[in-house]
TrEMBL record, chain A:
InterPro entries documented for this protein: Na/Glc_symporter_sf, Na/solute_symporter, Na/solute_symporter_CS, Na/solute_symporter_VC_2705, Sodium:Solute_Symporter
Pfam family, one: SSF
Xref: CDD domains: SLC5sbd_u4 (cd11480)
Membrane-traversing stretches: 6-25, 77-95, 116-134, 146-167, 179-200, 247-269, 281-302, 399-423, 444-464, 470-492, 504-528, 548-569
A biological process from GO: sodium ion transport
Topology in the lipid bilayer: Multi-pass membrane protein
Keyword Chloroplast: no
Protein's UniProt name: Cation/acetate symporter
GO molecular function, one term: symporter activity
GO cellular component, one term: plasma membrane
Species: Marinovum algicola
Protein's cellular compartments: Membrane
NCBIfam families (UniProt xref): Na_symport_lg
Family in the record: Belongs to the sodium:solute symporter (SSF) (TC 2.A.21) family.
TrEMBL record, chain B:
UniProt keyword annotations, A-Z: Membrane, Transmembrane, Transmembrane helix
Species of the source: Marinovum algicola
Any coiled-coil regions, as ranges: none
Name listed for the protein in its UniProt record: Solute:sodium symporter small subunit
Residue ranges of domain Sodium symporter small subunit in the record: 8-84
Transmembrane domains' residue ranges: 20-40, 52-72
Cited Pfam families: DUF4212
Keyword NADP set for record: no
Record-linked InterPro entries: Na_symporter_ssu (IPR019886)
Amino acid sequence: MDQFTINLLFVGASFALYIGIAIWARAGSTSEFYAAGRGVHPVTNGMATAADWMSAASFISMAGLIAFTGYDNSTYLMGWTGGYVLLALLLAPYLRKFGKFTVSEFIGDRFYSPTARMVAVICLIVASTTYVIGQMTGVGVAFGRFLEVSNTAGLLIGACVVFAYAVFGGMKGVTYTQVAQYCVLIMAYTIPAVFISLQLTGNPIPALGLFGDHAASGEPLLAKLDQIVQELGFNEYTAHHGDTFNMVLFTLSLMIGTAGLPHVIMRFFTVPKVSDARWSAGWTLIFIALLYLTAPAVGAMARLNITEQFWPNGTEGQAVSVEQIETDETYAWMQTWQKTGLLGWEDKNGDGRIQYYNDANPEMQERAAANGWDGNELTNFNRDILVLANPEIANLPGWVIGLVAAGGLAAALSTAAGLLLAISSAVSHDLLKGQLTPNMSERAELMSARIAMAVAIAVATYLGLNPPGFAAQTVALAFGLAAASIFPALMMGIFSKRVNNTGAVAGMLVGLLVTLVYIFLHKGWFFIPDTNSFTDADPLLGTVKSTSFGAIGALLNFGTAILVSKLTAEPPKHIQELVESVRVPRGAGAAVEGH
Amino acid sequence: MSDNSENNGYWQANIRLVKICLVIWALVSFGFGILLRPMLGGIPVGGTDLGFWFAQQGSIIVFLALIFFYAWRMNKLDAEHGVDEQ
């Protein structure tokens, strides 16, 4: 059986499983749909939330970014897990006590203002749309490889599938579908990692293998990796090279953003009890950590494997020959990935070999001149292909490759569909029915939801063709926007009785707009390529990259809200009482559907 | 329960606990993982140093411990102050 058939089988079987579960446990009413978590054990709920949250960014993209940068990209690992501490300590139990379903409802009620609710909805739409662009990038990579077509064709086909998947609707809210998705996703991530860890270090647990010894050389794995990447002129893997201030800000942005994203927060509104809300953040993080503790091992081991494949005779010996790439089974992955347009090589100096090295490094330029090399000949290695290509690079059996394809699609599709649902309900339910046309019929509401979804996916697909970065980088921008707009409003709504409606609205607007403008200045206006005035290599403010600005945006949001509130009247008595009641667990009822 | 949570023991105990947890949260990630890494540079862990381990794995493990500790401690506090869900 060829690999294409195996992939088709695995992807097909996993989809049949999700759809089967969705039909078996179909959600009926709105409240069933939102409250899918009710009556479900916190552990099961944690698993479902983990599947909901881990997207193409975590699954497809992150390990690749770590592999090619090393220590400096630990920011993703700390940022995307550290946010759960903020969520568990500062938001989850209080929002559960409040007892409504959505973030915008809390903001609207706590800041006693339809304007505040509307601003929150806009913030959610902006952050979610940016998030979907990142997902579409991942969807394009996964479909391109799995159907063996170009990245562009993969993206267009993927967009249709995502749309169908999201319109099918309710299945997203069904906890057990997500549990199944989590199982597929985590197996697809860890099984190849276990194989590779065994090959390289003899340790079956990748997270431990990373800090173990490289079996072939007897040296510690990371020391070996440091050595060979430096011999090719690249940065030392475990050392710190970038700007420290930017690294701190970026990590903080990801953390705050995690605690400000609506589709995750929503899960904690609907757990049975306040005490469960505290636990479930922990359970969710356990299931996320299974992937996140494995990811750095996947990155480092893949980097080692790739480098050794290009230099089969050691970094001082001869590079791999073009003939070998074209005929040797070990290099078959390069042929398949070349078709997607995300991997490319070129024998520039015509010596029949492909030299992969850092041609920007002066020492390597000397060596290149001495050996007649004409620049790095691995001309294109898209970071987003690393995880999906990893089992092929390590020559793992065909079923593992099929499993990884299914896992990548599960991660990208579930999150993309979930975000599209969030966007469409924000537009139809919160904006149109809640504000602009309150008398709208249910049919019209449903129709406008579909249209909003179609528009969002069209925009995301268009921008996904020329994405502002690799999947995880684009998603990081979405986290920055959520950090700058939503998180401060939620936190102040709970921890301050003094912040009033004017303050909150001003804070959210300042946070969102300043962050959005800073991002657009660096990534192009509305992410349209070539409309940017600055680049992240040389940012507007010192060393602050656009992906890191969310933390500053959040600070501006806090500052503005507190200052404006001080200058205006304090919130009415009943709002102060609402804050008091949110602060204690006693008296928490079931969550109710809002107006 | 008093009307004003700024003056009641339950809320103050909660705030104190949150502060302690957040200090540890920041220490293991921004501290050991990034800013204080040079200080931990001398402690070898599997071919690199302790700071690298904290940045890639250690901080995640501490985050988990923090969330479970906070949940356990708060659920006890709820009961002690008689504000738990019945």
